[in-house]
Amino acid sequence: MRNRNPVTTLLRLPPAWSRLAMLALAALLALGLFAALRPAMLTMEERLGVLGWTMFADATEEQRIILVTIDETSLAEVGPWPWPRETMARLVTAIDEAGAQLQLHDIVYSEPRPGDGALSAALAASRGAVLAQVPVLQSGQPVQAGVITHPLAGLQCAAGLPQTGRYLAANGAFASIPKGHITPVISSDGSVGRTPAAICVDGEGYPALALSGWLTAVQADNWSATMVDGGLFGPARYLRLVAYPDLEIPVDSEGNLRISYARDPSAFRAVPAVDMLNGNFDPAWFDNVWVLIGGTAFSMGDVVPTPYAGVVPGVELQARILGSLLDGEIPYTPASANLLLGLLSLAAACALYPLASGRSRWSAIGLPVAGVLLPIVMLTLHIQLLQGQGIWLGWLFPALYSPLAAGMLLLLEYGRVRAERGRIFGNLNSYLPNEIAREIAYSLPSSSINARRTEMTLLCADLRNFSAFGESRPPEESAAVLHYFFTRATRIIEESGGRVHEFKGDGLIAVWDSQDAIAARNALQAARKMQAIEIADMLPEDSPQGLEPLALGIGIEQGSVLIGSVGPAHRRGHVLLGDTVTIVLRIQELTADLAHPVLVGGVAARKLKDENLEPQGHFLLDGLRNPQQLFALPSTGRRTEDRSLKLIHGGRN
């Protein structure tokens, strides 16, 4: 079955291509996540994106706009809402007499009531007044209350403006009073961050309250507007008022303008309505200002969540829109925002690529750090643009892409390191025993002795007469013979539960990790199978005449050995030390002198009583002081001799 692991597939590519593929894959994954979790993503982007406003909120007092609030204190003294129209007429007159240039009512007088004429007259007699009306966008109820008036001529309702046929407007008694809508755009989390600059009702576009207030304040006779393209780095479109062409209102592709939360809520001065009615206010506050009248009492239900608080009166939103309009600083999202965010993501990829291409230590540390820091950088850039230029660029997509790309590159490099380490370990394991190869591959080099004493069963095998063969044949043929022998012998040893510790010249040393009867029996079994290797098959057909035939001598013994590595850190050597090693080497050398292909030492022979091994006597092996008893495999027709102690010098030279 084919390996369908994508990381494995990528590892087969050149490193540069595999990293580029991972960066592209991270982009696709980020797009998929953003699309699948779009509402939650946009909510997160909005909530963290306003940090540029809330962390550095401007608390400077707004002196051009003042709020007259129908608060809990006013309701307690004047009475429950709605107040009589005559009371509202007195409030309008008090505000006008205080010197206000314009008053905007964040109130819809939809139901006909006694006193509508008095209120209408007071509004008409003031320096300027605008009432609220509400085109209904997010309700399925068929609402058409009052008379909706004062549209903007010239707007093409098919050009991306919100459209509805439902509305709540002032009754006919106030038809002559200018009006503007107060319909916000409610986000999925209930917050308000945008409001339509104009809303189309039955084919005509009705402006927001702040825009109607602007047209009323400049005493515009022509309530006309046009939409123009904002350019690549400008907003999606500009709304231009024909009566005031220098004012360009940036809106998005859906016709919404963004509400600025740059001002701290404490910057808006508020006067309770009851104080206005009773004359308990400073007249200097109202000299030539714009006044917003609205309810702030919780019982009136006109509350919305904002970045500053979960419950804020709607009249504050109108004050923010009006302030941004007066300052000419309405925040907007560039039409090329997606392109710019894509370039930011590309910049993140360019920053991550060299980290992944560097040394493994840089990748292991740099990629996780970059995955954390880059989203912070993206958010910081968004905050700087919002604070300095009033540009809401957005930040979440590159901030999402950055850790995904860093994580996937880290996964790729981790997979590459694992593959390289596995390859190195495999190569080492082909030259060295498994535990030594593992130690080299997964440990730092050391200059100290790293060895342990253990009990083992050892087997030493050597090809006799190989030196003479190598002297008369090319080295390639010698290598081929050794390769054949080592391959066959290694397979036999491993099938018997042992492992080759070392290939030494034309021989080998194999070990079993115990000193019991099972290990001894396995070693003897391996020796018998190795003797069955057809040595003659290893020779080429044109071998020189007169050469003694190749033969195999094998010695077996058990005992204590020291196994490990020694030498300086830059040049370590793997060693197998101890008397048992010397004994098994000497035993193997005696196989030629005693004419036995397999000899077993006394310790191992005691574990092989059921093998009927033939004792060969005691021998004082070269370089040792204690005689060793040797045993040979039982042979048919051989008479067992009781050999006395003999001194054998050097074995086979």
Helix-strand makeup class: alpha/beta
What general form does the structure show?
rod-shaped
The tally of structural domains comes to 3
Termini separation comes to: 54 Å
Q: Runs with pLDDT <50, length 5+?
A: 637-653
Percent helix:
25-40%
Beta-strand portion reads: 15-25%
Indicate the radius of gyration in whole angstroms. 47 Å
Mean pLDDT: 86
What does this protein structure show overall?
There is one protein chain. The protein is an alpha/beta fold and 653 residues long. The chain folds into three domains: 6-36 and 336-426, no CATH class; 52-327, no CATH class; 446-648, Alpha-Beta Plaits (2-Layer Sandwich), CATH 3.30.70. The protein is 40% helix and 23% strand. It is built from 19 helices and 28 strands. α2 (15-36) runs antiparallel to α11, α6 (85-97) runs parallel beside α7 (116-125) and α12 (360-389) packs antiparallel against α13 (396-429).
